[in-house]
Amino acid sequence: MSAQQVPVVVLAGFLGAGKTTLLNHLLRSARGTRIGVMVNDFGDIGIDAMTVAGQVGSTVSLGNGCLCCAVDASELDEYLEVLTRPELRLDVIVIEASGLAEPQELIRMLLASENRRVVYGGLVEVVDAAEFAATRERHPETDRHLALADLVVVNKADRVPADGLRAVRETVAGLAGRAAVIEAAHGRIDPELLFDRVVPEGEITGQMSIEDVLYGDEDEHAHPHAAYDTVSLTTAVPLHPRRLMAFLDARPEGLYRLKGFVDLGPADPAHRYRVHAVGRFLRFYPEPWPDGEERLSQLVLIGSGVDAAALRKELAGCELDGPDDTPDEHALWGVLRYVPQDDEPRAEDELPPER
Question: Residue 145: which of 169, 160, 127 has the closest Cα?
């Protein structure tokens, strides 16, 4: 499996929820990250100074290493092929769905894509905190969309009193199941929730960029922003495949992303396994161990409201416990279920189940 796979994130939500505002925030925060944007809509869509007006079939440079194209859903594969060309060096693709789009169909199309350079990056559903009750009344399918989401952004949180916001969040969390739920104002969420930000060469991590100066909000601290937890684990002790899968199958609500590499020891001494999980979507990609590299399992878990100590304890419980704790010949089967095959049709049963 190529290491150059590009995650494709679906950004959905009903009209007025703040999808484009959130997308603009991501673009302004891109810094060294090259983002491909696919706008699945028609009419006037503002992306900063550029307006795409029904330009289906066009690809426009946004001037900061990012690209934008307006496409019809039927052209999704065609433009994924364009945007995943290695020479474009895109780090992530974000599809902004129409306010009336059916996100489930976009997810199905992505999972059925024959483009081996893409990997599904999750569904981000944006809801308007101030209009949430009215939106559910007008669009009963809201509940179904939330049940499919991997991350829910309760936007415009600054427009709702604290008790009202708490009620909206509780309702959303109940509908969204295991999805992480975060609050935001003006679409400001940390890009790290969606993709790995690239630090430009010569820039120090955490250093203020020119984009921070130009676009930073003076009243940033007056509004709620995305709060999330990051848990990192590095261990030189191989992991037991069965116990690792038991942990992944029961991963807690709010654990949005899991990424890294795992060493499965004697179960497959020739390979390390790259892990990619977003919400309920999970994939393993075996690859040969790099020559001379220390054999470590290195995982990063990102979520909202997760118990870091409990996660570390559960992951530590996946480690092999001495020479008698040796995986049997069938122990790897659970992991192999999530390894894509070259001839694998990306079947519809990969779609996260409705709840």
Answer: 127
Alpha-helical regions (H) of 191-288:
210-215, 241-249
Q: Can you read off the two tokens belonging to residue 45?
A: 């869509």
Q: Is the separation of the CB atoms in 163 and 136 below 8 Å?
A: no
Residue 345 vs residues 110, 182, 235, 324: alpha-carbon distances, Å? 12, 34, 35, 39
CA distance 5 to 195: 13
Strands 6-12 and 92-97 come out as parallel
Strands 255-262 and 58-61: unpaired
> Averaged in consecutive runs of 10 residues, what is the pLDDT profile of the chain (355 residues)?
73 87 82 78 38 40 53 71 85 79 81 85 93 92 92 93 95 89 90 70 43 40 50 92 94 82 95 87 90 92 84 92 89 92 44 42
pTM: 0.72
Number of helices followed by number of strands (H, E) in the chain: 10, 15
**CB count in 10 Å sphere of residue 347:** 10
